[in-house]
Every structure is written in C-alpha cells, then in structure tokens.
Amino acid sequence: KCCYEWAFLVAVETDHVEGQLRAVQRLCHFYRTVMPREAQCVVYHEFQLSLARRVADKVLEGQLLETISQLYLSLGTERAYKSALDYTKRSLGIFIDLQRKEKEAHAWLQAGKIYYILQQNELVDLYIQVAQNAALYTGDPNLGLELFEAAGDIFFNGTWEREKAVSFYRDRALPLAVTTGNQEAELRLCNKLVALLAELELPHEGLEFAHMALALSITRGDRLNERVAYHRL
C-alpha cells in the first residue's frame, strides 16, 4: 500500500498521467479486495474516473462508472442508492454512445433495480422493459436468459410485488434455458419457482417445476438438489 501511494504521489507531483493511472488502479484493487475499505475505494475509483476522462478513454470511463455505481449500491443507504443511480445513468449514456448493447442492457436493468430499491415503482417496469429490448436486440439467447433471470431476481429478492418474478422465470428465462441446453440455469430457475410459488401460497402451481427439478437433478447427478426436490414433493 505504501509503495502504491508513494508511486501515486510521485506521479501526481510530476503530472505523469499514465503513472497516476497505473498507481491508482493498484490502489483501487488494494482497497477493494486486499484490505476492503469502502470510503478509500470510492475515492480512488472516482480519481481514476477523472483520469480516464483526461486521457479520453471512454471504455474505461464506462467501466469505472459501472463499478462506482456498484460500490455505492453496497453502502445500503438512500443517499448512496441515489448516487448509484446517477453513476448508472452516466454509464448508460456511454454504453449507448459506444454501441455496447450488452453493457447497455445491464445498465438499464441496474437502474430498474435501484428504482425498485427506492420504491419508485412507476419507473421500475419501464427500465426493465428497455433492458429486455436491448438484450433481445443482440439476438444472443444467453444474454436474454441472463437478463430475464436477473429481472426476476429483482422481485424475488425484494419485499413487494414478488409475484412479478414468476413471469420472468417461468415464461421468459426458463424457455431460453431449455432452448440453449443450459441445465444448470434450468435447475436454478425451477428451484426458484418452487420456492416462490410456495411463499405465494400457490404450491400446487409449483409441482410441475418440482418434478422438473427432480428430473434435472437425477440427470446431472446432483444428489443435494435431488434430496431437496424429493423433500419438496
């Protein structure tokens, strides 16, 4: 840490932008993974963002805006959520300019998730719909599967309108998992549907997915999920 900070100070003193960028990248990594400290991590990422703008690196700028949004989101306060939303929207603008449809789709969905946390429900469905449209535009079924499941997760892991997750899992993500032959995702979605429908007091609707989960577990040789499926049945 001391070496990185010293290198950073020397680079600042000499106005060596590339040196500043390399040093601050190492400091970001240090405070995020080696010795996690949220405040320092945010500060160094924001400084790195200013350097990315200075060298006109739009790809790096978009990545940093995305990362800073996640950092603020993890703080768990309303003020932090609003900051996360601001950074997400800024990253969205860059991804649109760069025509990075996959990144754009994830940014739309992230904004929808934050609006859900802030309980601004009039905007949640709108942002999720645009995220889905961006994912479908790519024609990549794996991206569609990922986005539909993640959209369902927003409601599944939330505290209100949880029933909306059923449609995302059952009608959108699960058919794509079957089509792409992604048995891991298929099993995961079946388990989520069984659990969710039971919590919504609709266990009879979950029987089909419990049977599917059992068959998939046997096919995959997944003994733990097989036992869970038998228990649920």
Describe what this molecule looks like in 3D.
The protein is built from 12 helices and no strands. The protein has a domain at 141-233: Tetratricopeptide repeat domain (Serine Threonine Protein Phosphatase 5, Tetratricopeptide repeat), CATH 1.25.40.10. The chain is mostly helical and 233 residues long. Helices cover 83% and strands 0% of the residues. It has helices at residues 2-13, 17-34, 38-54, 58-75, 78-97, 101-117, 121-138, 141-156, 164-180, 183-199, 207-220, 223-232. The mean pLDDT is 90.
In a few lines, what is going on in this structure?
The protein has helices spanning about 1-15, 15-35, 40-55, 60-75, 80-95, 100-115, 120-140, 140-155, 165-180, 185-200, 205-220, 225-230. The protein is mainly α and about 230 residues long.
Reading the helices and strands in chain order gives: HHHHHHHHHHHH
Helix content: over 70%
Mean pLDDT, all residues: 90
CATH architecture of the domain at 141-233: Alpha Horseshoe
Tell me about the largest β-sheet: none
Shape label: elongated
Radius of gyration: 21 Å
Give the class-level CATH name of the domain at 141-233.
Mainly Alpha
Uncertain runs are: none
What is the fourth-level CATH superfamily of the domain at 141-233? Tetratricopeptide repeat domain
Span between termini: 54 Å
Q: Please report the number of helical segments.
A: 12
Q: What would the CATH topology of the domain at 141-233 be?
A: Serine Threonine Protein Phosphatase 5, Tetratricopeptide repeat
